[in-house]
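Progress note, sequence design subtask.
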């Protein structure tokens, strides 16, 4: 583990020219990406290994990071995905019996350039005012580059808007996880940045989880004889994922039940004919309040998204512009009234903008996996053509 008291310089440069000087943390060199902040006070290992963060330099608003180290049990995917990492006070020691290595060493092993010792509150306040923006971390020898050259590199980096990053994070070949609960059937899961906790929750609900590469066709989906389809979370701009939207429309045309989370929520919105837009600074953390309109309960949710669905009404059902019947906004963010969920009323499809699996917590929304299972079972039995209005209340609260 690198000493906290090393003097290797580092600088964070934002595209508007704002600069923050600190110390190198993790690997040294240069990294570029969209600078975003996450408000989670725990679960940094799950954050770092969440593929949704690909292309982003992540700032932790919690000041003290790294005290529990990294272990081999909690990763959400096969590697660390963040483009860079910003922390204020890295822990000087690892103080957890489950740790296999320090966070610093894990960042070095995966080549993640970071910076520590800067005023993360000041960076967060700046982003909240000006919006998420491109940035770069320059450390070691690269910290001495001319300031204008550093800013030029940042400004020339691709913006998040317009990027399709699914191929970067998706599996290259299908993977199957057998059901661990009473079997319901084969579930086709489009891997757009899937987390392991989601796979585990779906398998526990009785699905044989077929994790499919993001480039599959509707014929590939049909070939596994699925009882339903699931779209995962993931990075990038939903407006740049036209092929995934067309695949989803084919799924809906086939009448297959559908559940999407995070990126999957945005793609369902576009499949139904709605637009999407970029949020000023996004929602990232494990303390985001959401109202479930169906139950009237407020849930504390885990989120990581910079784009949202543009719905014509938050209060009343509306017609799908693409002809899929009535649709309603099922969940609303209480901080800024962003669309946090969609429910189709005439076809078996629904989605949420957050992460119901929430490894590291909270677990308020875990019941949504039960709602999906009940929808699939009811659809197979021909008892409920839509999204299971009668079963949701009874399922709410399970596994919390």
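Output:
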């Amino acid at each position: 583990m690198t000493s906290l008291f090393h003097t290797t310089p580092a600088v964070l440069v934002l595209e508007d020219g704002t600069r923050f000087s600190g110390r190198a943390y993790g690997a040294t060199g240069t990294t570029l990406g969209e600078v975003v902040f996450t408000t989670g006070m725990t679960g940094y290992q799950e954050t770092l290994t969440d593929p949704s963060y690909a292309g982003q330099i992540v700032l932790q608003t919690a000041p003290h990071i790294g005290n529990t180290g990294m272990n081999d049990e909690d990763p959400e995917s096969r590697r660390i995905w963040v483009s860079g990492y910003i922390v204020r006070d890295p822990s000087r020691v690892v103080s957890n019996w489950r740790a296999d290595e320090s966070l610093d060493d894990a960042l070095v092993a995966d080549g993640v350039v970071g910076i520590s010792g800067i005023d993360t509150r000041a960076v967060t306040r700046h982003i909240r005012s000006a919006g998420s923006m491109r940035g770069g971390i320059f450390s070691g020898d690269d910290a001495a580059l001319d300031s204008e050259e550093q800013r030029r590199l940042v400004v020339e980096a691709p913006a998040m808007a317009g990027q399709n990053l699914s191929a970067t994070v998706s599996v290259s070949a299908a993977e199957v996880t057998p059901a661990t609960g009473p079997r319901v059937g084969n579930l086709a899961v489009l891997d757009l940045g899937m987390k392991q906790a989601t796979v585990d929750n779906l398998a526990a609900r009785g699905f044989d989880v077929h994790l499919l590469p993001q480039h599959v066709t509707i014929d590939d989906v049909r070939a596994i004889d699925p009882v339903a389809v699931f779209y995962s979370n993931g990075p990038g701009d939903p407006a740049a994922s036209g092929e995934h939207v067309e695949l989803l429309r084919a799924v809906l045309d086939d009448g297959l039940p559908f559940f999407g989370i995070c990126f999957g929520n945005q793609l369902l919105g576009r499949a139904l004919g709605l637009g999407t837009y970029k949020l000023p600074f996004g929602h990232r953390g494990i303390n985001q309040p959401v109202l479930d309109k169906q139950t009237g309960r407020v849930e504390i949710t885990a989120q990581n998204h910079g784009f949202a669905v543009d719905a014509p009404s938050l209060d009343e059902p509306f017609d799908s512009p693409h002809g899929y019947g009535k649709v309603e906004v099922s969940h609303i963010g209480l901080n800024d009234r962003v669309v946090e969920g969609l429910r189709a009323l005439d076809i078996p499809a629904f989605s949420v903008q957050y992460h119901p699996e929430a490894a590291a917590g909270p677990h308020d929304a875990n019941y949504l996996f039960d709602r999906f299972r009940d929808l699939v079972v009811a659809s197979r039995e021909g008892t409920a053509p839509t999204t299971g209005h009668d079963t949701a209340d009874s399922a709410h609260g399970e596994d919390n």
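Residues 385-400 have pLDDT under 50 and may be disordered. Work on this subtask will continue into the next period as scheduled.
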